[in-house]
Design brief:
Elements: H1 2-10, H2 13-54, H3 59-64
Length: about 70
């Protein structure tokens, strides 16, 4: 019985693997949740930036500043 208990204590690689799989899944899940939470705001911000950049008129400013 003592040998069985000692052997059982030494064989913990499977438990460690399960721990890492669970932790990795949690990290991936939090990442997906974070991306989903900010996706709408990022798309709106990108659209606003695009509109602002498209509204700029820099063609004549570059020609008039040279001498």
């Amino acid at each position: 019985m003592i040998k069985f208990i000692k052997k059982f204590r030494k064989e913990d690689e499977g438990a460690v693997t399960v721990d890492w799989v669970v932790l990795t899944a949690a990290v991936v899940g939090l990442g997906v949740a974070g991306v989903t939470a900010v996706q709408g705001g990022v798309n709106t911000l990108a659209s606003n930036i695009q509109s602002g950049v498209e509204a700029q008129d820099v063609g004549n400013a570059a020609q008039g500043s040279g001498g």
